[in-house]
Every structure is written in C-alpha cells, then in structure tokens.
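Quick log. Single chain, no ligands specified.
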Amino acid sequence: MNNLLNILLMAQPAEGQSPYGSFIMLGAIIVVFYFFMIRPQMKKQKEMKKFREELKKGDKIVTTGGIYGKVLEIQERVIIMEVEGQNRLKIDKAAVVKDMGDVAQK
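-> predicted structure:
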C-alpha cells in the first residue's frame, strides 16, 4: 500500500501535459473540504455560542450528559439548573447543548 502511494505521488506528468494540473486538483480538493466539512462545523460552533449567550432564567435545557432541567441562575461561565425533584446542579455553560422550549412535552 505504501509503495503504491509513493508511485502515485512521484508519477511524472505525461509528455505534453501541464504539471499544474495536479496542483489544480489538489486545490479543488481543499476547496471541497472547506465548503463541505470545515465551514459547516464553524457555523454550528457559532450558533452554539450564540445560543449559550442568549440563555435566560426559566429556559428548559439539555446537557451533554443528557440531563434535562430548567435554568435557575446564569453566571459568567456557570449555570445553576433545576432538575426533577427540585434538585439543583451547577454546570458549565459549555455543557448545554439544547433548548427544549420548542419541543412538545409529553
């Protein structure tokens, strides 16, 4: 497998072909990766940051660990949330992944 990869990478362009074709193809691959993988991930991270900044008291949330609760207090990096049975948990803002306000409750 390694030998095949070395042969493909070291292959010289056929006579009459432009050596820039392989550079153009590499550039096209980078552009495709950017638009289909990197850019959507960056957009998702921006949306999550905005969501966490807009949290307010009373919002229903879900943590990365799957704990459902309601926001009681918001500090700079910490959220105090209430879970079933009036138990309180202190969690990091980065652990909040969803707002359950728009999901129908059973």
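The chain has a mean pLDDT of 83.
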